[in-house]
Amino acid sequence: MSYRPSSVVSGWSVPPLSRPQSAEARRVRAVELFGQGRSNAEIAGAVGVHAESVRRWRRAWEIRGAQSLRRRPAPGRRPKLNGAQVEEVRAALERDAQAHGFEADPWTLERVGLVVERVTGMALSRASVRRPLTGRLGWSPQRPERRAVQRDGSEIARWIAHEWPRIKKGAVNTRAWIVFLDESGVSLLPRIRRTYSPRGRTPLLRHRLNRKRASMAGALGHHSTDPERGARLCFHLKPGSHDTTALIEVLEQMKVFYRGERVVLVRDGLSAHRSRAMRAWVADQDRLTLERLPAYAPELNPVEPLWSSLKKRELANLAGDHLADVADATAQGIHRINQNPQLPWSFLTHTGLTIHPPHPQNLRKDQ
Q1: Which pTM value belongs to this model?
Q2: Do the bridges between strand 231-239 and strand 213-223 make them parallel or antiparallel, or are there none, so unpaired?
């Protein structure tokens, strides 16, 4: 009976052995049979190889021991960059691309190759740059996040450390809802992500250069003291853009959502939020407190991932002929979000901001 390594061990299914692994398993089994004093013919029949192979294995086993029959990995080609050079390149790449004289931040294989040549004096091909970059340096191609040049990191850190705790404390004292407000635009120009086409033929999408646009406004609220009340989403869609008058309409609609409740409204520095008409309207509200996010910090607004969810699902690949098509798709997305009670909370989690303290692990209600 020939020797076949099993692919099931102790009831667990494991991947089948590769050819080199199977060959090594036969040699290892032959070594065990050598120790039992079996003849070459018996071993050849047991492991399923020719007797000459067994004689060759036995000579190697007698001269160099069982380790000589173990599989040895192929050494492969020597790397073009040694360890010290790789560390020099790593240190150079830790600085952004503009520090090396490039106009923008993205790293490409060509740019990395130029840095490698400056640091080590070696000109490498794209493939020779990619191998150490993705292997020994541990880099990978990723979609970058965008950050405005005017962004002030220290001011954002100060807001998170001081202003956000103050906002939460004030909301808790008045048992208010903390509501984040944001606006975003949509257009009839299709947001194409993928389309089917015959292999080898790049698809050509024809569409009218129609600049009809609509603007979405969303107000996402979480109660400051009672997470069981869930999240509330107030949504508004209109042709064109949201000016002061349109935003006041949104806030009037929001008052219906929060009738009789106190609201702390957190919004960005859009000019329509700070206009004279807006300030006059806010002055007449006795249950509304306004707070402002730090400048150029959209990642702190949980409505931003809500927009991303819509644009990656319902609005992706939307080939609409009228703004009503965009409105219908957006309404479907808002319905999807409202049907999932955890999704609005995940948007807040995505910002890194917290409203309620985390519950201790394994804490029973009677404790």
Answers
A1: 0.62
A2: antiparallel
